[in-house]
Design brief:
208 residues; mainly beta; eight-stranded antiparallel beta barrel; 4 helices; 8 strands; globular
């Protein structure tokens, strides 16, 4: 290593030959930057550390039948992993009564960003456990179908997730949640200033 000999070689140093650079000078500059960071006590952090991915399906109280699907990526922060974020993309298909006595299919896609708080870790010292209770709250946007009054509907949501660990990396969970949005921003014929819908998702997650 080119800098202070008291600095311990990092993983990047030991595996340095595996990185691809266009020139030896570029290799040296990259190497030097990491050692300067170490001098100030800053360690390289992998983006995927404490990350997870999940898939889920569920239902709710919109229309006669509602089917929701969701895929999400998230990350826990710090050694305690109490606080985290989750970015999700999903779809909703509802069947609504029409004037002819039948049902119209209402399809939309959505994007959401959620804050996660692991309540079990927050209030318990136990490091080895099989169950976690999370509080979840966030904001998102729906992109509804052709009958909607606007192309984008903003919403807020909150809920709780109970997760059962199957292994070090895998888990299954149930998440009851409440969604809030303005009626008239969704359909002009709806009159309530704010509407709340209740749903539940069942899913599985994989921790990186």
């Amino acid at each position: 290593c080119l800098f202070q000999p008291t600095i311990q070689p990092c993983g990047i140093c030991e595996d340095f030959n595996s990185h691809s650079f266009s020139s030896s000078s570029g290799r040296d500059r990259f190497h030097n930057v990491w050692h300067h960071l170490q001098t100030f006590g800053i360690q390289p952090v992998e983006v995927t550390d404490n990350g997870f991915a999940s898939i889920a399906a569920g239902t709710g109280n919109t229309g006669n039948v509602l089917v929701n699907t969701e895929f999400a990526l998230g990350k826990w922060f710090g050694k305690s992993q109490i606080n985290g974020i989750r970015i999700s993309a999903g779809s909703s298909t509802a069947f609504l009564d029409n004037d002819d006595g039948g049902a119209n299919r209402d399809f939309n896609v959505n994007l959401c960003a959620d804050y996660l708080c692991n309540l079990t870790t927050l209030f318990s010292d136990r490091k080895s456990r099989v169950f976690d209770l999370l509080f979840i709250g966030g904001i998102g946007s729906y992109f509804p179908g052709a009958e909607a009054n606007t192309p984008i509907v903003l919403n807020g949501r909150f809920g709780f997730q109970g997760q059962m660990r199957l292994s070090e990396h895998m888990g299954v969970w149930v998440e009851p949640r409440i969604n809030l949005f303005k009626d008239k921003s969704y359909r002009a014929d709806l009159q309530e200033p704010i509407r709340g819908t209740i749903g539940v998702m069942i899913g599985t997650s994989y921790k990186f």
